[in-house]
Amino acid sequence: MSSDQDHLKETDTEARFEFKKEENSAFEAEKGLTEETVRIISEDKDEPEWMLERRLRALEQFQEMPMPTDWPGQPDLSEVEIEEIVPYIRPDIETRGGAEEWEDLPEEIQDTFDKLGIPEAEKNALSGVGAQYESEIVYQNMQERWEEKGVIFCDMDRAVQEHEEIVKEHFMTKCVPPSDNKFAALHGAIWSGGSFVYIPEDTTVNMPVQAYFRMNSEGMGQFEHTLIIAEENSEVHYIEGCSAPKYSAFNLHSGGVEVFVRENAHVQYSTVQNWSKNTYNLNTKRAICEADGTMEWVSGSMGSKATMLYPSTILKGPGATDNHITIAMAGEGQDIDTGAKVYHNAPDTKSTIESKSIAKDGGRTNYRGLVHMADGAENASTSVECDALMFDNDSTSDTMPYMEIQENKVDVAHEATVGKIGDEDVFYLQSRGLDDDDAKQMIVAGFIEPITEELPIEYAVELNRLIELEMEGSLG
Amino acid sequence: MSTQLHANLTEEQVQQISGELDEPEWLLETRLDALAALDDLDMPDVITTPGPRHWTNLVDLDYESLVDPLEFAQEKDRVEAEGADVLSWSDALAEHGDLIEEHFGSVVDPQRDFLTALSTALFSAGTVVYVPEGVAAEDVKIRTRMNSRSLFNYTLVIAEESASATILERQTTGTNIDGDQYYSGIVEVVAGENASVQYGALQNLAEDTYNFSVKRGHAGKHGSVDWIEGNIGSRLTKSSVETRLLGEGSESRIVGAFFGHEDQHFDINSRVWHEHEHTTADLVTRGVLDDEARSVYEGVQDVGRDAWDTSSYQRENTLMLSDDAEADASPKLIINNHDTEASHSATVGQVDAEELFYMTSRGVGEEHATNMLVEGFFVPVLEEVAVDELRDDLRELVAERLRE
Question: Are the C-beta atoms of residues A309 and A338 closer than 8 Å to each other?
Answer without folding.
Answer: yes
